[in-house]
Write a sequence for this structure.
């Protein structure tokens, strides 16, 4: 009976949404790369293209935006604070909620620019991405700044 219980648990774990799918991981990493490439080009529309039309964002400056147009406007302002910069985005974890929804966590760092005094250059993020049709899009994002280093 104990063996049956263990087998049942293992079978359930094998088909649970918690199992990592390399194709999903690749799709989520591709969204991050698309954002980073657009950032480097100073292309706010390209950055905003990874978001769903009704996405919501709270960025590391505390600005809240709802909808792709508002997100693009927010990104335009942020890019103006960091002209000529690059952003590196590194996924550190991913939790599949279902076959079509994942929560992804990671870090970000802006380099190649001299930001105004006190403007953050690195932190961490959490995004919720959903597969809509054949494409993955970010539906919610929160970027944060880590505590000051001593």
């Amino acid at each position: 009976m104990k063996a049956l219980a263990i087998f049942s648990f293992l079978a359930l774990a094998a088909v649970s949404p918690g199992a990592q799918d390399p194709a999903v991981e690749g799709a989520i990493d591709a969204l991050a790369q698309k954002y980073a490439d657009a950032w480097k080009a100073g292309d706010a529309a390209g950055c905003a293209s990874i978001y769903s039309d009704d996405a919501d964002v709270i960025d590391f400056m505390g600005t809240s935006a709802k909808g792709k147009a508002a997100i693009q406007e927010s990104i335009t302002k942020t890019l103006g604070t960091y002209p000529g910069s690059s952003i590196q985005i590194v996924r550190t974890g991913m939790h599949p909620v279902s076959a079509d929804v994942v929560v992804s966590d990671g870090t970000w760092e802006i380099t190649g620019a001299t930001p105004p005094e006190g403007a953050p250059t690195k932190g961490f993020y959490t995004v919720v991405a959903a597969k809509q049709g054949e494409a993955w899009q970010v539906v919610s994002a929160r970027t944060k700044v880590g505590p000051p280093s001593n």
Observations:
- Confidence is low (pLDDT under 50) at residues 1-19.
